[in-house]
């Protein structure tokens, strides 16, 4: 690779292994961090990353200002470099972390978007279930709404993760952290009917083997595990069809799940557990959403508001 120091290239490969294996980063996050570090190393050209000083890192940040990245992207790039140099310091490749004292831009606090229960029902009721894939899609959206799981967690579900007798599902979240989530009777009913009738018919012309504990629950039209992109496309198609004036992603289902639990009096710690948040501060944002919604209802409903 032109313009990349050979030692730095090896350091980057070792770093990738470190964040995936030891730090348990998701593939998505690891890819973003490695891409950030690679951009920095290419900018460094033949200079070894082990010769870098604080002022050199700061020069790089000045350089990338011209690309008009969002504050969140700049913050991630700084976090990537910090983590990379923390790793090099641990490996005794550098004597100090030149990225340690970089100041991250303050991230704009944006409240998560959510759907009203009526909007969710409208989306669910507009999934055509007259084909095996259509029935699969309905089961997927029912599960997202009922459980608040991440779309990557849903895609990764295997038969061994189900305990439907007790309305429980085991999921593996960020950093492969395992947790148990609860499922409503309605979503369970759709899931069981999909498994019993539609699943074996989704892959037309492909022989689907009897599932074992490690078989994916949701499959595509060739019999392999359904990818998250397909689930996003399913939602986009329905939202376009019903002309819902909101951008809806699988994560919006998760936000909606959390918001409505809190609006209906659920304890914050329980919501944290169900969502798989490492910190309660991540969950607290839903109390702000709930308060904002309360104010909107108050302003619309109170005669003197």
How are the elements arranged and paired?
Blueprint: H1 6-22, H2 27-44, H3 54-64, H4 71-90, H5 117-125, H6 132-147, H7 151-155, E1 162-163, E2 168-172, E3 178-182, H8 185-202, H9 228-242, H10 250-263, H11 268-275, H12 280-301
Antiparallel strand pairs: 1-2, 2-3
Helix pairs in contact: 1-2, 2-4, 6-8, 6-10, 10-12, 11-12
Described by the principal axes of the CA atoms, the overall outline is globular
Major sheet details: 3 strands, antiparallel
Kindly name the structural category: mainly alpha
- With helices defined by DSSP (H or I, 4 residues minimum), what is the helix count? 12
Q: For this structure, what is the CATH class of the largest domain?
A: Mainly Alpha
Tally of strands: 3
Task: List the secondary-structure elements in sequence, H or E.
Answer: HHHHHHHEEEHHHHH
Trace the largest sheet across and list its strands.
Answer: 1-2-3
Output the CATH topology of the largest domain: hpI Integrase, Chain A
Give an account of the 3D structure:
The structure is a single chain. The mean pLDDT is 87. Helices cover 57% and strands 4% of the residues. It has a three-stranded antiparallel beta sheet. Strand 2 (168-172) and strand 3 form a beta hairpin. Helix 1 (6-22) runs antiparallel to helix 2 (27-44) and helix 10 crosses helix 12 (280-301). The chain folds into two domains: 6-90, Tyrosine recombinase, N-terminal domain (DNA polymerase, domain 1); 117-301, Orthogonal Bundle (hpI Integrase, Chain A). With 305 residues, the protein is mostly helical. It has twelve helices and three strands, in the order αααααααβββααααα. The radius of gyration is 23 Å and the shape is globular.
